[in-house]
Amino acid sequence: MTGTQEKKRVFIKTYGCQMNVYDSDRMADALASDGYEATDRVDNADLILLNTCHIREKAAEKVYSELGRLRVMKEEAARNGRQLTVGVTGCVAQAEGAEIARRAPVVDLVVGPQSYQHLPQLLRDVGGGKRAVETEFALAEKFERLPAATKERTRARGVTAFLTIQEGCDKFCTFCVVPYTRGAEVSRPVDMIVAEATRLADAGVREVTLLGQNVNAWHGVGTDGREWGLGQLLYRLAEIPGLDRLRYTTSHPRDMDDALIEAHRDLPALMPYLHLPVQAGSDRILAAMNRKHKADDYLRLVDRIRATRSDIALSSDFIVGFPGETDEDFEATMRLVETVGYAAAYSFKYSPRPGTPAANHAGHVDDRRMSERLSRLQALILDQQTQFNRSSVGTVMDVLFEKSGRMPGQLMGRSPYLQAVLVDADTSRIGTIGRVVIDSLGSNSLFGTLVEPDVRPAATQSTVEVIT
């Protein structure tokens, strides 16, 4: 491309999980090397990609609805002599690639999550008048061939970043589509992960969240040629200069081993906030979900984790109204939540996913009863979250400042527990970690005041200090 040619613009709409956010960034990186620049305006894009998620209810229908709107845009662009290319990527593309191509003529290409490295070539094929559908499982090739982001693009994305280290899942929970849309568990090797994390740190990223559909099942080849677990990987990543904070999500209780728990004890960079989905508190429902753990297994695991690091906070996922769930089963979930005490949690009504075993289970719970149960559960979780946030008032926390707040002279940062913290401070502090006394609690944020002028590396600071 010569300097006089106008760059093509790509608009990527991202649905769903953090892994899709990561994938959208990697697609943008791959397309940048092919002459595309990212735009946040759909109306001036030459290429529109919908990076889809299949977890939520009626995900495919929402995609087709969006494609209907894009059809109108594409026809308007054609009348104005402009070519608009439309693509569907992500898990809906993986699950329904051929059906999307059949039902939505507006779509020029369909690309599954393991094939983003092929995007430039697929777009060239589309430019030649073809329609492209690529949904092969080729995870290792994906990460080997996707280009790294430039330092400038990484800096523009902020001081926190996601880093996918594992994709796919072998657990086959009966409600989940992941094994069918992301494939079997595959782990990236240590050297590839460390190289990417180092590039992020060199570009100014201060916090990295490791991603995987079942991230604590990661078992990659280490620098010594042996298989490592997630705990060992975290120790290695904590050695990277400038990388002050580490997180990981999402986990399965069955894969929370001693080495990983000990990493929470030993590594100041590993934040004391753990997302550990349990899904239900009834052993009968857990067995029907094929979770492979019982409620007591989960509670004993929580006790082990808290005994190792007393200041750790937990979040979780819950499904209400799984087929066959009785009032007694639901009360068991409520008791588990009361016993654990969560800082936050995500809870949803069960909805069947085509192709999953649970979709064919008997005993589907009516929507009214599911809504009543969900309302009770969410009220309990909200009460626990409010109590947890209220307990932060009067403490001093390490806050990573990420961006300007809504008010002039205000910065927004994150506590070790992912709470949004607002302080009055200069923008020069973005990307630094400061000590903040928490003064008050808002509806969605904590408000605080800087308590010291200097900014020290996170590894030398305690997480939370209680003011007496």
What would you note in describing this structure?
Strands 2-1-3-4-5-6 form a 6-stranded parallel sheet, with helices on both faces. Strands 15-16-17-19-18 form a 5-stranded mixed barrel. The protein has a 3-stranded parallel sheet with strand order 7-10-11. With 468 residues, it is α/β, with parallel strands linked by helices. The longest helix is centred in the last third of the chain and has 24 residues, at 367-390. It is globular and about 65 Å long. The protein has helices at residues 18-32, 59-79, 91-103, 119-127, 139-145, 151-156, 178-181, 190-202, 230-237, 258-266, 283-288, 295-308, 327-340, 367-390, and strands spanning 8-14, 36-38, 47-52, 85-90, 109-111, 132-134, 160-164, 166-167, 186-187, 207-211, 245-249, 273-275, 313-320, 344-349, 395-404, 410-414, 420-424, 433-441, 446-450, 464-466. Helix 2 crosses helix 3. Residues 454-462 have low confidence and may be disordered.
